[in-house]
Design brief:
The protein contains 4 helices and 18 strands. By secondary structure, it is mainly β. The chain has 2 domains: about 190 residues, Probable tRNA modification gtpase trme, domain 1 (Gyrase A, domain 2), CATH 3.30.1360.120; about 120 residues, Beta Barrel (Elongation Factor Tu (Ef-tu), domain 3). It starts with a strand and ends in an 11-residue tail after the last strand.
Length: about 325
């Protein structure tokens, strides 16, 4: 059995979980100007991204709203790979390509060549001598003909994104436990923008800067002035929280708070459903919400009298003196 006893913030794995992430895709940026081009487009520093490193990043509209989010890593000296949600890859690639102009950078959809696997390892297991994975989050290492990118841990499990040729065989036993990977992604508190939430959030609304996805010392990028203003004016009114409930949620769904039931308090960023081995399921979601409406400790999904969402602790702290 893959899933063991579960507490609110823990998921006991009896064995590694390795799942093909068909809902993710990869954009390849190749050429001597690849890093400088991306540095002028993303919320994250790309010029100093070295081999062996990965980072989170966002791509914003001129209004500072996230069009996409990425896990990016240096895949070759003149190449950077960007993993993102497959349902917005085409539009993101098209928009980025409009701004390449004379830069020596070729952007392409590499999803057919690079397969992405989500790997969850029990506890702090870092692989074995033959297939070690990086010892710290957002480091990379070669594993079995591919690249292992260590992500943020979640619910007591080590998470790895394995990028490999499409015909490569993972060194871990593959499973059909996609629900486990999705659950851990939500529990990590790291946002992933999908088609249903594109242009909905300034990075801070989904805690992107708290998980290392925004560099405030780098140069300009689309929406940079708005993102910086949101950071330094000291009045962040909306944040992303973790909640569990009794019903399925989907990204983009509205949520309501009892203190102001007449209008939406926010919306779902990511959601997951985890079946229990003995029947039933647990439901979790990352929810962007007005901070002033979370004091009651609960939200409602869909309508003011919809299914209850109970707030849970994120694996990192949100500054208390922003609002």
């Amino acid at each position: 059995m893959i899933i063991g006893a579960m507490s609110t913030n823990e998921l006991a794995l009896g064995a590694p979980v390795a799942v093909r992430l068909s809902h993710w895709g990869v954009i390849r940026a190749k050429g001597e100007d690849a890093a400088s081009f991306l540095n002028g487009q993303l919320t994250q520093e790309a010029l100093k991204l070295d081999l062996g490193q990965a980072r989170l990043a966002g791509y914003c509209s001129p209004k500072g709203r996230l069009l996409a989010s990425f896990v990016m890593w240096r895949s070759a000296p003149d190449e950077i790979a960007l993993a993102c949600s497959a349902d917005l890859l085409a539009t993101t690639l098209k928009r980025l390509s409009m701004f390449v102009m004379r830069a020596k950078c070729k952007l392409s959809d590499a999803s057919a060549e690079i397969a992405l696997w989500g790997v969850a390892l029990p506890g702090l297991l870092h692989g074995d001598a033959a297939h070690p994975v990086p010892a710290s989050p957002y480091a990379t290492s070669p594993v079995a003909g591919g690249t292992a990118i260590r992500l943020a841990d979640a619910a007591g499990a080590t998470r790895v994104l394995w990028a490999a040729p499409a015909d490569a065989t993972p060194p871990w036993d593959t499973t059909s436990q996609a629900d486990v990977w999705d659950w851990l992604e939500v529990q990590s508190g790291v946002p992933r923008i999908v088609a249903g939430t594109a242009e909905a959030f300034v990075p801070q609304m989904v805690n992107l800067e708290l998980v290392g996805g925004v560099n405030f010392q780098k140069g300009c990028y689309p929406g940079q002035e708005i993102v910086a203003r949101s950071q330094y004016r000291g009045t962040l009114k909306r944040r992303m929280v973790l909640a569990e409930g009794d019903a399925d949620a989907v990204p983009g769904a509205e949520v309501f708070a009892a203190a102001d039931p007449g209008q939406p308090a926010g919306q779902v960023v990511l959601a997951a459903r985890l079946p229990h081995p003995e029947g039933g399921a647990r439901h979790a979601a990352l929810v962007e919400v007005k901070r002033a409406l979370t004091d009651a400790g609960e939200l409602r999904l869909g309508t003011a009298d919809g299914p209850l969402l109970r707030l849970r602790e994120l694996p990192y702290a949100i500054p208390a003196d922003e609002s």
